[in-house]
Amino acid sequence: HDVPRRYAAPPGRRIAAFDGKKVVELFSGSARLARSIAQHGVDCEAWDIIDGPDADLLALRNRKRLLRDMRRGRVVCIWMGFPCTFWSMARRLTHSGPGP
Prior knowledge:
Elements: E1 5-7, E2 22-26, H1 32-39, E3 44-47, H2 60-71, E4 75-80, H3 84-94
Parallel strand pairs: 2-3, 2-4
Antiparallel strand pairs: 1-3
């Protein structure tokens, strides 16, 4: 599959003001947000290390690619998700809040 994962807005639902632009979801995991935004008319990319080295943001070539798109005005929004395992572990250690 594509890396980073790409989700296109369906024909007929595409929002014209966002043609040639995209939303980027970083540390996306399941990419539910990116898929949902695409269904509402805006193209999206989902980046997560689980997809392999071409989606690894520690790799300079990938950061350059993302920054290039940002500088060219192609990225209208960036969403960064926190790793679920970290926050789940933190809740267990403090015994506060709901479990994972």
